[in-house]
Amino acid sequence: MRMAKSVSRVLIASAMLSPAWGLPPQNAAQPHTTSTVTLQNVDQRLGPFTIAGQSFTIVLHNKRIVGAPSGSFGQTLVKLEIHDQSRAVLYQKAFAYQLEGTKFQQVVTASAQLLPGDNLTGLLVSYTHQPIAPGNEQSWQVFGFRNGKLALFDQPDSAESAMNTPGQFTGVIARAPNGAVPMPIRGPLDSSELRVWTGEFYVIVPLRVDWRSGKLMAGQRCLETGMGGLRETGCDMRVEAERTPSSAEFNFARLFPTPEENLSTNVQHAVIKKGADVQLLKARSIVTWTVDEDVMRIGFPNLWLKVLIDNNTENEGWIHGEQDFAAVGLPPRGPPR
């Protein structure tokens, strides 16, 4: 089958299987048996998704271990296809799999949704890989119309390369060292968002789409002026999380007045009692964008979280690191299903 390299607007892909998007599973072939387990082919369909008056469907080809309980690493994605309304395959992506006893060594799932912008609409496909190091489970693709055909959009540049690339300062926010209100520098691009799992909670990462050239760009970058000129400091982002408070009577977390770990900073060691009310106000980090074959991944090399404990402003501040995140009920784990 030929893989189309383009199509007339954007389709973005978010890959966690969500029954709300798909039709009931259908057996694609007769089961076959290995030395220890019996595998069955199972197809799922997501969509249809209507973009620019055209209809598209995503077909997920899965392998399932017959008799495996739900959620027990008993089913994994082995191939994703995007079909047009004539059922022609426009794009396909394969995933290797390996058995480990009576389960898959790693499970891949996928989901898809329309990615609406201010001007056009695309399709977002997201992939989730488990198990893998927390914070690295997710990857994404964006598809859009280019030259009248559906195509995979170019991924954003990393923060490091974007700093040295002319024209990459769209969405930059200049922040004064004294904390003055930041001023965004915006360009003629469409705005969207990605919900990204950090390993402990979700952050909402801005994304910009250039529909005409078929490119994605980091939606926001924050720079601070200082004695040495401009430096990247990381941007504030919205947080979504479900806390899992510890059963211990007391926990302890370091509260910093600013999202910087400096020995001269006045660090407060907050006591978090069992049942304490902990509000998660916002996150801050430089966001890194990397390309892994034909998907994009997002990282947070120095992630901070602002919290308010028991509605007491004296217990308001920034925390970071696994130990402090766990103290407020955010232990490292895979993304919730």
Describe the structure.
With 337 residues, the chain is mainly beta. It has two domains: 10-152, no CATH class; 160-337, no CATH class. The chain is built from two helices and 29 strands. It has helices spanning 159-163, 322-327; strands spanning 10-14, 26-27, 32-33, 38-51, 54-65, 75-83, 89-94, 99-100, 103-104, 107-116, 121-130, 138-146, 149-152, 172-175, 183-185, 190-197, 202-210, 215-218, 221-226, 229-232, 235-237, 239-240, 250-255, 268-273, 278-285, 288-292, 295-299, 304-309, 316-319. A hairpin with a 2-residue loop joins strand 4 and strand 5 (54-65).
Blueprint (SSEs and pairs):
Blueprint: E1 10-14, E2 26-27, E3 32-33, E4 38-51, E5 54-65, E6 75-83, E7 89-94, E8 99-100, E9 103-104, E10 107-116, E11 121-130, E12 138-146, E13 149-152, H1 159-163, E14 172-175, E15 183-185, E16 190-197, E17 202-210, E18 215-218, E19 221-226, E20 229-232, E21 235-237, E22 239-240, E23 250-255, E24 268-273, E25 278-285, E26 288-292, E27 295-299, E28 304-309, E29 316-319, H2 322-327
As a whole number of angstroms, the C-alpha radius of gyration is 22 Å
Overall number of domains: 2
In total, the number of strands is 29
Structural class: mainly beta
Shape, per Cα inertia axes:
globular
Q: Total helix count? A: 2
User: Could you describe the largest sheet, including whether it forms a barrel?
Assistant: 6 strands, antiparallel
Mean model confidence by pLDDT:
81
User: Approximately how much beta-strand content do the residues carry?
Assistant: over 45%
Low-confidence runs of at least 5 consecutive residues: 1-28, 159-174, 180-187
**End-to-end separation:** 33 Å
* Helical residues, percent: under 10%
